[in-house]
Amino acid sequence: MPLRNPWFETVAEAQRRAKRRLPYMVYGALLAGSERGRTVKDNMDAFGDLGFAPRVVGHRAERDLSTTVMGVQTSMPVLISPTGVQAVHPDGEVAVARAAANRGVIMGLSSFASKPVEEVVAANPDTFFQMYWSGDRDAMLQRMERARKAGVKGLIVTLDWSFSHGRDWGSPTIPDKIDFKTMVKMAPGVLPRPGWLWRFVKTGRIPDLTVPNMRPPGGPAPTFFGAYGEWMQTPPPTWDDVKWLREEWGGPFMLKGVTRVDDAKRAVDIGVTALSVSNHGGNNLDTTPATIRLLPSIAEAVGDQVEVLLDGGVRRGGDVAKALALGARAVLIGRAYLWGLAVNGQAGVENVLDIMRSGLDSAVLGLGHSSVHELSPDDLYVPPGFRVTLGGGAVADAQAD
Question: What is the 3-state composition of the chain as percent helix, strand, coil, each rounded to the nearest 5?
Fold first, then answer.
């Protein structure tokens, strides 16, 4: 019987296949969300509320999708967002990095990743390393210096996590480590998905739930939950702490997790290179508005001083075009490429990036432009009440009549 065509035409199809392939607890960990799941849904649905304003004549035969982010060239304004332990595939972040390199885009690597920063940078030199405010200052300096030595080209600091727990649909069971006892306990959820298990069997290893980029000098890599516990117990940073981190890094620096105009202005004041309008993919404080609703006010407030990016809900190239039209320099994708990784490894991630590129190119063509840098609000229909401003005075509709 011939193998099913591994190619998929949309991210939605990749997600459907991933759901069929992955053990339910692994799929549930990727699906994530929090509480009611309102923010996850709004992140995606809000893009559908925006309409394009296409032109009928004057289309450009050649279109340039390339840009730079924090001084690093990328073939299109789509970055790999850093995500934690990628146990969906044995090659994890290395496969993602190779796919990104093959498509000429920037790789974001989480400090909670399952692969060491050295291996990932070897696979894709255009890598940004992501950190949380976790542990003491010496530990954070050690992680930064290790990333610098490995050759990363920028630092992403994520600060929007509030340790929100509980999902109305239930949370997956994620073990602290994989041992014989754990394998027996999880067998009913794993055995019905032999394809996922076989990938690991072929490599001669089981899913590794340690986080090597959090390893202390001379010590073993902590488990995911060990590192998560350290993070939870670390007092949250002040703006002075973030400024210290930026100064110690001394290079391109992105602050991820901004939703408010006043926070964006404070980020500018401490000297960030870029910021990402993000609500942690809806995994954090539920009912936070969709990032695409928040983007315009933040871009208008600080976009002439720092690079503004967006993540959350991007599932197609048209979403990328809409974000750029409302002021983003680029977007970061997370779940989208993880579905591709789950379905077909490196090739699946490349498939997702090709979907993004094709959809973006179609939008730039239909809107009559020759470059992504020409996209503007004039290319969109923005319905009344769509835009939301936080931290700019009262929480208000920026398009109120």
Answer: 45, 15, 40
Q: What does the buried/exposed string (b/e) look like for 72-96 if buried means 16 or more CB atoms within 10 Å of the residue's CB?
A: bebbbbbbbbbbbbbbbbbbbbbbb
Set 59, 89, 280, 369: catalytic member: 280
The DSSP bridge pattern shows strands 253-258 and 67-69 to be: unpaired
Pair 305, 54: CB distance under 8 Å: no
Compute the distance between CA of residue 216 and CA of residue 279 in angstroms, rounded to an integer.
29
pLDDT single digits (tens) 3-51 = 478 999 999 999 999 999 888 778 887 887 787 889 999 999 999 999 9
Q: Give the 3-state secondary structure of residue 274.
A: strand
Sorted by sequence, the CB contacts under 8 Å of residue 201 that are 6+ apart come out as: none
Structural tokens at position 205: 């290893």
For residue 178, give the amino acid letter.
I
C-alpha dist (Å) from residue 279 to 3, 23, 41, 260, 288: 39, 27, 12, 11, 7
Residue 119, judged by CB atoms within 10 A of its CB (0-12, 13-18, 19+), counts as middle
Q: Residue 401 CB: number of other CB atoms within 10 A?
A: 5
Do residues 375 and 367 lie in contact, with contact meaning Cβ atoms separated by under 8 Å? Answer: yes
For 138-160, write each residue's pLDDT tens digit: 999 999 999 999 999 999 999 98
DSSP of 72-128: EEESSSEEEPP-S--TTSTTHHHHHHHHHHHTT--EEEETT-SS-HHHHHHH-SSEE
Q: Could you please report the per-residue DSSP string of 216-270?
A: PTTSPPPBHHHHHHHHHHSPPPPHHHHHHHHHHH-S-EEEEEE--HHHHHHHHHT
Tell me the C-alpha distance between 152 and 121, whole Å: 7
Distance CA 11, CA 42 (A): 17
DSSP state of 169: T
Place of tokens 């041992």: 179
CA distance 277 to 286: 16
373 is catalytic: no
Listed as ranges, residues in the chain with pLDDT below 50 are 1-3, 394-401
- Give me the residue label for tokens 């885009």: 105
CA pair distance 32, 158, nearest whole angstrom = 18
The pTM assigned to this predicted structure is: 0.91
